[in-house]
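[Meeting: bench + compute handoff]

Bench side (C.D.) handed over the final construct sequence. Compute side (W.E.) agreed to return the predicted structure before the next meeting so the bench team could plan truncations. Sequence as handed over:
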Amino acid sequence: NLRALTYRQANGLDPLHPRMAVVLQHMVEPHIATNIFYSNKLLEGEPGILVESINGFGEPLVSGELTPSLTVIDNEGAIVVTCEVNQPWALKMNGLGQMERAVNTGSNIICNGAARNIWRLVQVIREMGTSMDIEACIASGAAWTIFQARPITAFSIGNIDRDDSKKAGELHGQGASKGIVAGKVCIVDCDDKKLPTTLHGD
């Protein structure tokens, strides 16, 4: 098409004999899969990191099949807000090398050590100078693997107050991946009495 031909011409590529580039990534089996959102105005106008996390492979996270636990990390790498969500199942690899749903038996919340590692990852990626959407996982041996990192183009994070009495924050817009952050999301304490106060559409 004309757009492809124009791109090739602008970049000095042969318009008649294009070659395809293929990116190969090593397959890893995640212990915890995450979506990491970095914004320089997340916490009272200061930089912060919002982490969505589930056990197992991350496809149910980005597709919206599973609701993730949420962790907010401040600019010093400390956890300031957590909300753990019960995860009924996880996508795991069976003995035949096939992915299947399995009963989830572990916690999917980010611990202090993982929070510090996420903070270190973000310090490198934030050099791009913008809010970032990062897909990463903790694999076996607590090693971190980054699948991709890209600027957030259609996602704005509302202010989250450090004061426990004002712990709720709001997210507006939609992330680069469809899923639980689409629309308006309220971060609330994990308290059954408070959950009914959320409104339809939240």
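W.E. noted at the follow-up: The first strand starts at residue 32 and ends at 43. C.D. will use this when planning the next construct.
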